Amino acid sequence: MNTSSSHVNLHSFILTGIPGMPDKNPWMAFPLGFLYTMTLLGNGTILAIIKVDQSLHEPMYCFLSILALTDVGLSMSTLPSMLSVFWFNAPEVPFDACITQMFFIHSFGEVGSGVLVSMAFDRFVDIRHPLHYASILTHGIIGKTGIAVIIRAVCVVFPVPFLIKRLPFCHSNACLIRTPVSALVPTWSSSLWGLMPSSFSYVLILKTVLGIASRAERLKALNTCLSHICAVLLFYVPLIGVTIIHRFRKHLSPVVHTFMTNTYLLLPPLLNPVVYSVKTKQIRRRIILVFQRQKNRV
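Now predict its structure.
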């Protein structure tokens, strides 16, 4: 069939919510609203604490701030569609708005991947060259790294909207949903390519840690990486999972695909603040101090 003849002038998509369970959509509004609220509250708390506490103006926490901003951006990119379907029962989304939303979801995902690599390098420098840590990772270097990560993400994702517009579509906009949703799923090769730099950094970290003579110092060095390892797992385990299901298990129920995609988009931004609040002593102390002050005022 001639590809050009199958193109249709699209104006909007119809988002159906949970496939096969449209009657459950209104009930999903409350847990989704709760998840978004907790995500914004958690990341906002991390950003506020790092900004207020001068002792947290270190390279590690600067990268953590960028990660928190990325998580907020990713959540805000998916929020409009979620609200329109589950809260306002308005499933129709303009075609250009859908493509724009797709661009930002991909972009913030790429930024998050780049930030995790930068944080892995930060941990490597801290363990390998502790005396020169502050002189190597200056605020200028951190700023340039952040800008480079953003430029890389935009350059990688920028062609995607134009390529999507060139795709052939069927005549019913109800069956068009699979095409843009499929475009949100990273390929297997891109998932592994994003994981490799972080993995390589931790191979170097592990090699450096094993070279430390004192067992207590080795445990202390590994403990400084624990929260970041959890963040890497939170990012890449759902990412690889949704990629595998989309690539090799297309026959599974659409509910499974929807669940895995939502897990990939919603879980890391929600749990990253929890991980860093629990595992990072300085942030945990600051949060406890804030709650104690609020309690004393009451």
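The domain at 11-297 is CATH 1.20.1070.10 (Rhopdopsin 7-helix transmembrane proteins).
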